[in-house]
Design brief:
127 residues, alpha+beta, VC0802-like, Alpha-Beta Plaits, six-stranded antiparallel beta sheet, 4 helices, globular
Length: 127
């Protein structure tokens, strides 16, 4: 598990908006590691170079918020996420949001977790 910087943007939900934002990052060789888009077209993402990505997006007039989140891998099997969530719960830490993805037959799943105190959550999870 690691503490990573998440970027958050609010985009207009119009055809091509997401494509333009993704292309701006691709043109600068920034890789999107994880992404979540919620109602209202709020985009949260973890990228391989958040400092450069935030600068690129701001140059293109996107309003970018940055936040530390937990980024970890968990076994891609029944109970993999439950074991991790239990450690955080037992420490009395509230999960504000979470997004995850896995390739169906892969051994591990990637998880991004927003918590009020990322350092305390990291310690509670034993990393």
């Amino acid at each position: 598990m690691a503490i990573r910087t998440e970027l958050k943007l609010s985009l207009q939900n119009n055809p091509g908006t997401l494509a333009r934002m993704c292309q701006a990052l691709a043109d600068e060789r920034v890789n999107i590691v994880a992404m979540d888009i919620t109602q209202g077209f709020v985009v949260r993402m973890v990228v391989d170079n958040p400092v450069h990505a935030a600068a690129v997006l701001r140059e293109r007039h996107y309003q970018v918020e940055e936040r530390e989140v937990l980024y970890t891998l968990a076994p891609n099997n029944p109970g993999g996420l439950a074991r991790f969530a239990k450690l955080i719960a037992e420490a009395g830490i509230n999960v504000e949001y979470l997004y995850t993805t896995a390739v169906e037959d892969a051994d591990m799943a990637a998880i991004v977790i927003g918590v009020p105190d990322v350092r305390r959550a990291t310690a509670a999870a034993g990393v």
